[in-house]
């Protein structure tokens, strides 16, 4: 008899992809009565809700607290399955996805699959290349294997040992959860036949923003866990966090300089309006401009 599987999909303002994601989940070659689909809407403001409501046999819930962690935890509370599977709204899964999950979890407690990149431009290709580099790291160092929530599954009993996702960590939550799983000596299998197709972002600013958010969360993970834990599961985070702190300081100084220069330029305009009659006096005007120039040089 097949195992009952609960699929959790968090979504936020993803009207472009959520329909395709749901269709792929409904078209699994796995008996319908043995799996459930839980879509957790993180309070979307676009037409995401309308699209989801078009489908039947979907468990639709709303989580107002921002972040994928809170959304996944909301979904976990209402699951009925023995196995919990995760994917994202910008993914569509292969037809045999659930069968591969069940097959992998007959001998293991957790499994991560392979994500094929769907790339529409050079930015998306760059993101895909970065993912492939991560896959190589998985192969070389067992401690670095991650439960990537775009394509992974765990037995429900794992959450009893490890607890749920940390809702304070919003962008590296699966990475941090994975390390806690490994710390409990729960091995994570890697199944290359368990495939999802991930629509990679095409906007460069979106990619940069995600990278910045992950850097912020890396510091949260370092603060939360002891040094030995970080060195074992996040060896790159220590140097990354140091570089990030330097970057933030430089960024703040840069913004401060821009603000001061704006204030000085604004002051110059006001002075010119107020003291317009004196501008024609060369001595006074030279002194005003010299003073403002000196103040500007300090910034």
Describe the structure.
With 299 residues, the chain is of the alpha/beta class. It folds into two domains: 5-235, Spore Coat Polysaccharide Biosynthesis Protein SpsA, Chain A, CATH 3.90.550.10; 243-297, no CATH class. Helix content is 52%, strand content 17%. It has twelve helices and eight strands. It has an eight-stranded mixed sheet with strand order 3-2-1-4-7-6-8-5. Strand 1 (5-11), helix 1 and strand 2 form a beta-alpha-beta unit. It starts with a strand and ends with a helix.
Number of domains: 2
Most strands sheet:
8 strands, mixed
Shape: globular
Rg over alpha carbons: 26 Å
- What's the architecture of the largest domain, going by CATH? Alpha-Beta Complex
Q: Quickly name the level 1 CATH class of the largest domain.
A: Alpha Beta
Q: How many β-strand stretches?
A: 8
Which structural traits does this protein have?
eight-stranded mixed β-sheet; globular; 52% helix; 8 strands; 299 residues; Spore Coat Polysaccharide Biosynthesis Protein SpsA, Chain A; alpha/beta; 2 domains; 12 helices
């Amino acid at each position: 008899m097949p195992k009952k599987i609960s699929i959790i999909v968090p979504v936020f303002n993803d009207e472009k992809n959520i329909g395709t994601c749901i269709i792929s989940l409904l078209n699994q070659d796995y008996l319908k009565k043995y799996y459930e689909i839980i879509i957790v809407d993180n309070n979307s403001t676009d037409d995401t809700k309308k699209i989801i409501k078009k489908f039947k046999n979907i468990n639709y819930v709303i989580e107002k607290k921002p972040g994928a962690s809170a959304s996944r935890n909301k979904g976990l509370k209402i699951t009925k399955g023995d196995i919990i599977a995760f994917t994202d709204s910008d993914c569509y899964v292969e037809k045999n996805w659930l069968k591969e999950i069940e097959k992998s979890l007959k001998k293991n407690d957790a499994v991560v699959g392979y994500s094929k990149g769907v790339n529409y431009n050079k930015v998306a290709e760059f993101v895909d290349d970065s993912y492939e580099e991560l896959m190589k790291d998985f192969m070389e160092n067992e401690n670095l294997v991650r439960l990537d929530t775009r394509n992974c599954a765990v037995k429900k009993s794992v959450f009893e040992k490890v607890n749920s996702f940390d809702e304070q960590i919003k962008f590296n939550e699966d990475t941090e959860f994975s390390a806690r799983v490994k710390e409990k000596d729960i091995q994570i299998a890697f199944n290359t036949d368990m495939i999802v197709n991930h629509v990679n972002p095409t906007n460069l600013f979106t990619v940069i923003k995600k990278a910045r958010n992950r850097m912020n969360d890396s510091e949260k993970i370092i603060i939360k866990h002891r040094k030995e834990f970080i060195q074992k599961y996040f060896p790159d985070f220590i140097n990354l966090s140091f570089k990030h702190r330097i970057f933030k300081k430089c960024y703040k100084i840069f913004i401060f300089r821009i603000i001061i220069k704006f204030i000085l330029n604004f002051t110059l305009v006001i002075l010119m309006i107020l003291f317009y009659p004196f501008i024609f006096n060369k001595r006074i005007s030279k002194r005003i401009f010299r003073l403002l120039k000196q103040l500007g040089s300090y910034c």
